[in-house]
UniProtKB/TrEMBL annotation:
One Gene Ontology MF term: hydrolase activity
Keywords, ordered alphabetically: Hydrolase, Metal-binding, Zinc
Pfam families in alphabetical order: M20_dimer, Peptidase_M20
Limits of the Peptidase M20 dimerisation domain: 199-298
Natural source organism: Desulfovibrio porci
Protein name: M20 family metallopeptidase
InterPro entries, per database record: ArgE/DapE_CS (IPR001261), Bact_exopeptidase_dim_dom (IPR036264), Pept_M20_glutamate_carboxypep (IPR017150), Peptidase_M20 (IPR002933), Peptidase_M20_dimer (IPR011650), Peptidase_M20A (IPR050072)
Cofactor: Zn(2+)
PANTHER family the record matches: ACETYLORNITHINE DEACETYLASE (PTHR43808), BLL0789 PROTEIN (PTHR43808:SF9)
Amino acid sequence: MDLEQWKSILDTELQNQEAPMLTLLEDLVSMDSPTAHAQGVNQVGERLAAWLGEAGFLVSRLPKPPIPDDEAWQKDLGDVFMAGTHAPEAGPGIAFIGHMDTVFPVGTAAARPFRLDRAADRATGPGVADMKAGLVAMLFAARALKRSGLLPCPLTLMFSPDEELGSPTASQALAAKLPGALAVICAEPGGEGGKVTLSRKGSGHMHLKIQGKAAHAGRNYEDGASAVIELAHKILGINAFLDLPRGLTVNTGLISGGISANSVAPSAEARIHLTYRTLEDGQRVVAGIRALAAKPVVPGTIARVSGGLRLYPLERSPQGDALFKLVQEAGETLGLRLSGQHYESAAESGFCSSALGVPTICCMGPEGENIHSAQEYMLPSTLVPRCKLMALSALQAAKAFGR
């Protein structure tokens, strides 16, 4: 079959599906699912799994991977959910990936619920674009492919609980389940005007803890060792790695420490986020931060650092460019004019490309902007077209990369 024939069959499969897609989207947006709220994230996963189970997919909830001793907080994250057309031994085939977590705290869905404004072509609500609309597009595209019988290989869907914190557990699931995939299509929000993403930065998350020695700040200051002062030195040292022309950001975004104003601080800590365009740059900065932590400035203090690189960068590659060309051809068949862009933040697409070596394209979901803000919106007019684009691109990739 050619693209036009595939399109005709997909048009039939997805006819009159916009209303149920919007209903499911409203359902998902109404569920608060910030990364640290495992109950809410898992509620989203259970809803997706139930929907896919009814559609005849094999669904599973993956067990927690081994958690590093120095990052025990990961035990409280949600679970990875997975679905497929075939048993795992058949291989992953084409993979659709997306994340269930958002950045908005519990209570946001009630305070700022889903709204649909047809006249303005706007849907709003927490996580509506990033990326609950993408999850909906994944599900309906997958069901259309399954029902049509057009896809000549397995189809795998993976849903991450912790992408907004760098996918510390989900990346292990991707590493275990997606090696050998023919292509990965990530349903992060597309950019307005037909944009998909060909490259994006990687990210890292690190946690710095300083142990000092308490003392009365007035009576015997000299007997103490201030963890807060040591942390201040460390923050300035970390900031020296910032290199904006190179696309390298290092941000100490959260700090805490001390027990009272008149006590020499016995402890302090900070959380650090970094982004980088090349894996080499990311590795260099992490090594530099670890070396900095190992050298105390305030005598009597000890620094420990955990974490590191999380999501690797999505770098341009010949196989990625080949997939983009196929996506463009699919878009032309659907009447969509698509262009590629670079994105200045990280996503799981980069891990699939850099760590697994799989042809990957990102931001294939419905178009939207202002993500991570109260002004976030999705364009409802792009919901069905982007769903069709994912399905048609999967067929293109299976034909081109199939073995």
